[in-house]
Amino acid sequence: MLNTDSMTPAERGAAIANGEEVDRLPCNPNIANGVARVYGCKISEFNHNSKTIAEAQMAAYRKFGCDSLRIFTDLFTWAEAMGATVTFPNDATADLAKPAILGIEDIDILQPADPYKDGRLPVHLDAMKYLRDLAKDEIKCSAGIVGPFTNAFFLIGVNETLRLLHKNPEAVHKLCRISLETCKAYAKAVLDIGLNPTISEPMSSCTVISPKVFREFSLPYMKELIDFIKDYDGTKVVVHICGKTDKIWKDVANLGIGGMSIDNVASLKDCKLAIGNRTKILGNVDPASIMYLGTPQDVRIKTLESILDAYDSPKGYVVMSGCSLPVETPLENIQMMMDTVREVGYPVDPERVAEILKRYNK
Q1: How many Å separate Cα 174 from the centre of its chain?
Q2: What positions does the domain Uroporphyrinogen decarboxylase (URO-D) occupy (predicted)?
């Protein structure tokens, strides 16, 4: 299907915010580093080439007409800027090779990163400027930040952090505090460029830690970061937490966020009922078994099911994959997600959507 949108993403977002008519639901397939496949470059070029990062994002927008572009290449950019060692495969996403410190005795030597000088943070900031200038007023752009708690894991190592949560909680709090200072400095730089920060907190998942641990070690620092961003220019951030999150939805919504992005193992319907009256819901088509491994028809069915589950969420709904798409996700599957949202249109007619689903589920 050709791009039949009658509005730009920026126009659509503004109309939704003002309660006006729109052409369709917003949709963000969350292509992530798969934009390299659209643009025709190696992922390794994202590590040190700001212009390529921005142009690849824009190429994906031109191809699919998605509603969001984000500067974000991997989870380890902030820990690297604080001293961690990262490996850079030729054509795959960067990975953590060695944490910034080897033991708690070194915590005091850690320093907050300077986003204008340290690691690849300046590369990302420059990419934001390029993207802002390319996107103009057509589509709003964001910049991903790994949250303070998750970044703390990469400063001393995942297994060591999990051990310290029980053996030396004060050490974890010190790591989160220094991590938070890096996140705040980066968020300020992002806001000064004119983009909206988004927060990814994968280690805050209830698949990884208990709600009790989340409330003690992650939530206070997430709150401080979100409050800092809101106080700086009024921006309400979108938060993504991987895995199971139902037991902490209300905790996160209480922070006054702009949106909650949930993974495919969580229930859109339950999330809508729990916090849909307080924040926008984003999600949650399975990025692996549906978007990457499924057929276009699988994508269509799951996208329709997601729309039925959440189209009437009081504060709004964005059709989205449950997490970043695998790099080799078939482009025809991404196109099918967009095509399906366009076919449904707006306002959503649930009876018509159910009828389409019935035909495909026979």
Answers
A1: 26
A2: 8-343
